[in-house]
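Thread: quick sanity check before group meeting

JM: Hey all, I'm pulling together slides for Thursday and realized we never actually wrote out the predicted structure for the chain we discussed last week. Dropping the sequence here so it's in one place. If anyone has concerns about the input, flag it before I start.
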Amino acid sequence: MPLLQSADWPLIIDIYFFLGGLAGGAFVIATVASLWGGDRSREITRIGYYLALLAIIPGPIILVADLGMPTRFLHMMMVAKPELTIGQSAVNLGPFHLKPFSPMNAGAWALMGFSLCAFLAALDVFLVARGGRSMAGLRGAAGVIGSFFGFFIAAYPGVLMGATARPLWIDARLLGALFLTVGMTTGGAAIALILAATGARARDGLASLKRTYTMALGLELVILILLFAVVRGAGPVAQAGLAALISGVYGTTFWLGAVGVGLIIPLILELTSRSRVSMGVTAISAILILIGGFLTKYVIMIAGQAI
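JM (edit): ok, ran it. Output follows.
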C-alpha cells in the first residue's frame, strides 16, 4: 500500500470518522439482531438501521466541505488511467474506476455502498412500522452486504492513518482494529441510549446488546495495550509521537477522557450491573462510551499530526 502525503485534518474530519464508525457498528448490530435476534430484538433492529442511516448522511457532506467542491469527491472515485501497476490494480467501471489498494478510492466507494445499504434497510423497517410488508430478501441482502461495508467504514480511518506518512500512525499497525472496536462500542451504546431514553420494551434484547458492547469495550482495551507495545518497539520518532499522546499536552485528554471516561468507568458500570438492566445506568454508561469513543479518535488524530 503506497503512503499518502502527511495529513492535516481538522476537527470536522474526526467528526466524520466518529459518525462513520458509529454508523458501521450500529448497522452490524442491527443486522445481527434482524437475522438472529427474533421478536425481542425488533426494536434494536429498527433503531440500529435508522441510526446507521442518520449517522452516515453527514459523511459525504463533510468530505465535500473539507475538499472544497463536490467534483473533488468524485475524483476520489475515479482514476485517469486504469492501468495495472505493481502493487495496485484498477477495475474499469466506465467513467469511474475502483482501485482496491488505494485507501482514498476504496474509502469513497465503501461510503457510497454502505449509504445505499443503510437506506434500503431503514426503508424496509419504516415500511413495516407503517403496516406494510417486509421485503425480507432485500433487507437480508442489504444487511449482509452493508455489514461488510460497515466493518470497512468503521476500521477505515485507522487503515487510512496507517497509510499516511506520520510517525505515530504508520507504526501503529493496530489502528484499524482499534477504530473498528470503537465503532462497535459507540454503535451499540447509541442504540442502548435511545432504547433507555424512549423506554422501549426491549429489556431482553437490551441485555444482549449490553453484553455485546461490554465485550467490545474489553477488546478495545486489549488492542489499545497491544498498540502501545507495537509503537514502543518502533523507532525513536514513533516513540516521540506516543509520548505526545500519553504524557505530553494530550495526555490528560487521553487518560481521563478516552481511557477513564470512555473505557474504565463504563466497564465498571456494566460489569457491576450484569444481573439487572437499569435504564439509568444504561444511559449513563452509553453517554460515557460515546464521549470516550469520540475522544479516542480525536486525540490519536491530533497527536499524530503534532510530530
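AS: nice. Residues 11-306 form a domain with the Formate dehydrogenase/DMSO reductase fold fold (CATH 1.20.1630.10). The radius of gyration is 20 Å.
JM: adding both to the slides.
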